[in-house]
Structure formats: C-alpha cells, structure tokens
Amino acid sequence: MRQIFGEYKPDQPAHLNDGVQMADGVYPIANGYAPLPQFAAAGNGTLAAKCLGAAAYRVGGTVYTFAATATNIYKYTSSGYSSLKGSLTTSGAVGVRFCDYNDWMVMTNGTDAVQKFDPGTSTTVTANLGGSPPTGRFIGKVKSYLVLGYASGDPLKMAWSDIGDPEIWSSGDAGTYFLSGGGDITGFVGGEDYGIILQENRVVRMVPTFDDERFVYQEISKDIGCIAPWSVAPYGKLVFFLSNQGWMATDGYTVDPIGWEKIDRTFLNLFNRTYISNMSAAVDPLKGLLFASVPSANPTSQVFIYSFGLKRWTTAPVTSERIFPALSQSINLDSLDALYPDGLDSIPVSLDSTLFRGGYPLLLLFDGSHQLGTLSGAPMGATLKGPEQEIFGEMKTRMTEVKPMSDAGTVEVTVFGRNDLSETQTAKVFTSRTGRGRYKGRFNYAYSQLQFAIPAGTSWSFCQGADTAEVPGGRA
After folding, report:
1. Domain encompassing residue 10
2. Which of 57, 260, 276, 321 is most buried (CB neighbours < 10 A)?
C-alpha cells in the first residue's frame, strides 16, 4: 500500500485525517516535505542582552543591520556591535520598531524620543528625529508620510508627519486622528498606496486623500483583529497576524483565515498570554515561508511555519528571542580568517551560505543566548507522523515491511497500533533495513499509524510518504 504524507493538520483527529499529525523540523514542498536547516551563528554576533527589535536596510550599496536591547540601539557588522544610542528605557512588552525612510532608518520604542540613523551624517550615532514628533509604539510609511501608531501613549491615536518631510509634525500636512473603537492599536504596516492599522478587534485601511482630510479610514474587518503585536509579519501586499480565532492574512481588502481546522487550535492551546511579548514572526523571503514563534518563557523554543504559496503548515524546534527579515552582509576572505582562525574546516556552514553574501534578502534571528544567526546549518532532526488508518476494515493489518519514500539514508520507522480507537496505542520500531531501503518488522493491529524520524545532520532533500507490505491478519 502506498501512503502519501499530506498536509499537516493537527487540529483534526488522527483517524480519517487526510493529512499528517506531525511535521516537525521540516517545511512543505509541492509533493512532500524538505529538511529545515539548523541555526548557524553569525561571526561576533552575540548581543549584550535580549534583543527587543531588529531590522536591516541598504543605502548606497552598504547594508546596515540594527538590533535593540532595553537600553541601547546597536549596529552590527561582521566585526561585532557598536552602540548608536544608549540610556534608553525600552519596555520588553513594547520593544523597538524600525522604518526606513529614504536614506534614513527611523526607530521608536513608545517611550523615548523617536530616533533616526542618517549614514550621510554619521554611522556611529543616532539623533532625535527633528520636529518633536510624538512617541509611538508602531511606525510605518504611507506614500511620503511617516506614520506613528499608539502615538503619545494613546492606544487609539495615529499621528503623521508632513508629506515628504518626516521632521515636520506641527504644520503643513502633519496631523493626528483618534480611531473610534476597535480596541488598542496592536500593529501598523505602511505601504505605497495605503497603510494597515491592526487593532485588537478590527483591521482598518488608512488611505491618503491628498486633501484637507489627509486620510480616510476604511474598516476591512470587524470583530477580527490582532491580539499579539509581535505576530504581525508583512510581505509584499500581504500582512499575517494572530487573532483570537487563529492565524489570518490580509491583502488590504479582505481578511482570510490561514490556519482554520489545520493548526489554529493547536497553536492557541500552546499560546501563553503571559509571554505574548516574547513571540515574533517574519517571512523568509527566499523560501516564501512565514516563521511564527509560540509565546513561552524567554526564549521561545518552537515555531510554526506557513508556506503561503502552498497554503500548508509545519513546525520546528527553533529557539529564538527575535525573528526578523534582513539583508546579508558580505564577508571577504580577510574577515573569514579573523572569524575562523582554525581554517576552512572550522567554518560551520558552506562558503555558499547566505551568511557570506552581501545584500541578499534572508531571515535572521537571535537565539536564546542573544546570538545572531541564520537557519543555514546542517538539517535539524525531523519527525513526520501520518494519519491513523484502518486498512482492512474489520480485519487486523499484518504489516511486515515499510519503505520510506525519501532520499534520507537513515530513518527511524515506528508503527503505532491499536485494535480499538478507545485504546492506547502500542509502538513498534522497525529497525532492520535492507539494501533497497525496506524496513522489516512484525505488526498486527486493526489501526496503524506510521512515523518517520530522521536524525539531525542527516543529508536528505525530500520525504513523501511510504510503501508498506501488509495482508489481513485476522478479525480485530
């Protein structure tokens, strides 16, 4: 019998599930699953304290990477970190958010004065943004307006600069607006045509009018909003976020569920509001995957992964303080010698790794030790568990052979069985592997469920399911 590993759907019962019950340490591909790389540390990338926000952009061919702690904003290069601003009072619940505006990177933490990094003036410090803007927890750019959300500490207030000048806040086209209900502002994403305001109980489109009104506010959804500020992850025209009902995506016109009857109940059962500020989410621009960490005591230790092209989910044991989209920095041979004095054999990743290329979009993260890095190492351990099947109806299934449909050289094959759905499953490990990749063993139960475990470091590229050999084994 051939069993294809379908979509990861842990919210549905294992019995009669047309997908899989576990897909961990992998990401979806068109006809199966592929291995997810382990964390690979960047050289000299250990931050002084927990990362509360990070970003990157490129100006004039130079990539600038920023990371914030409770007290400082740092700039990172392959040589390490240099402090751009100190004596900050950043709350762990609010963090620091970034927005590039022309050649500047603008930064806000909701408490201190809004900061700007201007490489044309100085690459060693930041300065207060001119015009005395209000404080703001959220920041973005709409057309040529710089916009702040949760402005002046008010959970319903939006504020924006003069058009074309982010250092004018009290004249010209600058202004403020108070949202009428919808709950606290929990996120803001800018755009060329409009901005997206996320609130606890609704999503609103902020559209420039270029008249005396400046902006109009159009409700996209009512009763569906964002409950976790750090769950907001924009990519192109899409914005992903976590609501009370589960994971959603908006294109600025509609809001659609992306985890309904798939992973939403599983994720929300793991969701601990006490640690909501510890979660983060971002899109890997190379693979087209959303990575979202599960809120837990710092650091978080699990992520859910969503392929928005395939509309499929997986999970992985990734430890993270902050996940964010960034750009790679180039590392020359002299830098490699300094970072890895023991020679090429001591480099933990391939020389083709995105860690060494400059300006390529990639996903970066800080692990539980404040260490910056990428998911570009050797494959992590992977586990795939299929649905529970009753192959011969009222008869037991006598299974003698399992052949994984995978190019992995090492697979631990476990078959779970029981004769009644109310019973506890019994596990049988198939350990004898033939030269043609068949695993031999004996199994005789009415209901069967396959699980494959591929050890960390194993070289493989796909896993699609299994071919099994079985015959009726008597009445259950």
Report:
1. 2-36+382-475
2. 321
215 in the same domain as 176: yes
- Maximum separation of any 2 CA atoms in the chain, in Å: 85
E-assigned strands of 394-437?
395-406, 412-418, 426-430, 432-433
Q: Are residues 387 and 357 in the same domain?
A: no
Contact (CB, 8 A) for 275 and 295: yes
Q: Give the Å distances, CA to CA, from 195 to 149, 164, 216.
A: 11, 16, 11
Q: Is 355 helix (H, G, I), strand (E, B) or coil?
A: helix
Which residue, of 353, 377, 401, is where some domain finishes? 377
Whether 211 and 106 map to the same domain: the answer is: yes
CA distance 23 to 385: 7
| The model's pTM | 0.93
Within the chain, how many helices (H) and strands (E) appear?
Answer: 2, 40
Which residue's structure tokens are 């979009």?
361
- The candidate with the shortest Cα–Cα distance to 240, out of 275, 267, 218, is 267
101: left (phi over 0), alpha (psi -120 to 50) or beta: beta
From 356, 377, 398, the end of a domain falls on 377
Beta-carbon neighbour count of residue 171 at 10 Å? Answer: 10
Which residues face 65 on adjacent strands?
Answer: 56, 76
The number of residues in the chain equals: 476
From 156, 163, 169, select the one nearest 211 (Cα to Cα): 163
- C-alpha dist (Å) from residue 16 to 10, 13, 21, 375: 12, 7, 11, 34
Handedness of CA 291, 295, 297, 302 (dihedral sign): negative
One-letter identity of residue 322: R
Count of the separate structural domains present in the chain:
2
Neighbours of 114 (CB within 10 A): 26
Dump pLDDT digits (tens) for 255-307.
999 999 999 999 999 999 999 999 999 999 999 999 999 998 889 999 999 99
| Interatomic CA distance for residues 129 and 168, integer angstroms | 10
The CATH number covering residue 236 comes to 2.130.10.10
pLDDT band at 339 (very low <50, low <70, confident <90, very high): very low
